[in-house]
Specification:
alpha/beta, about 20% strand, 6-stranded parallel sheet, single chain
């Protein structure tokens, strides 16, 4: 990989007094870097900050801030217990030790992300922030190498970011400890980042921009003889509406494939005993079928796509266990691999899986258009409410605009 500053943000992770100052938590325990090493790190960080500011690139300060009782911590309990035994409390919100290290100051135009554990991405808004900023590469500095930096590299890599860990801008300074980050990110030197400022960037990676996502176009949702209809939990879909939904979806998917744009099928598939269902307990109680009656179970006809909308060879199929196509699935990463940021969505239900998938997708930064006449239940009165979150358009309008 090549560092391209126009695609990059600088992440300064845990550049805080409790980790670096002699009077901080690690310093009191004799675990902080030597004063000369800290001075060198501050100088290195400052140089990288100046470089990124001159290039007009985002600078993100990722800070740990915890309650005094650590009730909001997401650290592994064993790790936290051992660390507290060694250092006592650290990174307590509002404390002097939780502040940025002396000589390190966030500018008004910089960004600050607060985390509660090791990874800069875990339960924070960092991924959405970087998406909003158009960032695809992260230059990572700070510490500690074997926990926070390693976890940030791992979780950021899982999200598809190209990450560059700057070896001479990390604490504690020990190259032998870089074995974990090396498996997840490129390890570079500060001089490599400086060199990127004058290097000729590679050609942009092509991408389709658009992708189509078909949600739950399965027999157990669309067939008139499905179990939820037979047991009075759902109304049957009128045949003329079913035909209209499938035909509109066929037109859209054909238009996508003609342009070489990806078509992604998202389907529910679960164990026959439903023990892997991740819907809310309220939803499960309201939609419970009699014992022995399955819904979208592995290997059953009900879990298959309806005959008119079978996936083709180059299409993608994502399996889920609950409502949202983004929930506990690789959909976000697949779309990111494809450089697809604008989604055309069909399927159902408008107040169920389409709703959940659309809202999660919007939260992740996708531009989503739900196809009003290719979703079910047909003519849903809830489409105007969904239109407050994303675009809702008919098939003909979308085809005209493609």
């Amino acid at each position: 990989m090549q560092i391209v500053l126009d695609n990059a943000a600088l992440l300064l992770v845990d550049v805080q007094r409790d980790a670096l100052h002699p009077d901080g938590a690690l310093g009191r325990a004799g675990q902080a870097p030597e004063a000369t090493e800290v001075a060198r790190l501050v100088d290195t960080w400052g140089g990288l900050i100046d470089l990124m500011r001159e290039a007009g690139r985002p600078i993100v300060w990722v800070k740990t801030s915890l309650r005094p009782d650590f009730a909001d911590s997401t650290y592994a309990p064993l790790w936290l217990e051992r660390r507290l035994e060694e250092t006592g409390p650290f990174f307590i919100e509002g404390s002097w030790g939780a502040g940025l290290m002396d000589g390190m100051d966030a500018a008004p135009d910089d960004y600050v992300v607060v985390k509660k554990g090791h990874s800069a991405y875990d339960n924070t808004h960092l991924d959405r922030l970087l998406t909003n900023l158009g960032v695809t590469q992260c230059i990572v500095v700070g510490g500690g190498v074997t926990d926070t930096i390693a976890e940030t590299a791992r979780t950021g890599g899982r999200l598809g970011y190209e990450q560059f860990v700057v070896e001479d801008a990390l604490y504690p300074p020990n190259a032998a400890k870089l074995h974990a980050p090396r498996k997840q990110a490129e390890v570079v030197l500060a001089e490599d980042v400086y060199a990127a400022a004058t290097a000729t960037p590679p050609a942009p990676r092509p991408g389709p921009d658009f992708a189509m996502v078909l949600v739950d176009m399965q027999n157990d949702f669309m067939n008139a003889e499905r179990p939820h209809v037979l047991y009075g939990l759902s109304d049957p879909m009128p045949e003329e509406k079913r035909v209209s939904i499938t035909e509109n979806t066929q037109q859209l998917s054909a238009a996508m494939r003609e342009r070489g744009w990806p078509v992604v099928y998202v389907r529910v598939v679960r164990r026959q005993d439903n023990s892997d269902d991740v819907h809310s307990r309220t939803h499960r109680r309201a939609r419970t079928l009699p014992p022995g009656v399955t819904h979208c179970a592995y290997g059953t006809w009900g879990a298959e796509m309806v005959d008119e909308l079978r996936p083709e060879e180059d299409d993608y199929v994502v399996e889920k266990k609950g409502g949202s196509g983004f929930g506990y699935t690789p959909l976000h990463r697949i779309l990111r691999n494809l450089n697809a940021r604008r989604l055309i969505m069909t399927g159902g239900a408008v107040t169920g899986c389409v709703w959940a998938t659309a809202l999660d997708g919007v939260a992740l930064g996708y531009d989503i258009t739900v196809i009003a006449d290719a979703t079910y239940p047909p003519d849903s009165p809830d489409l105007p409410s969904l239109a407050e979150w994303c675009s809702v358009q008919p098939t003909a309008e979308v085809l005209a605009n493609l």
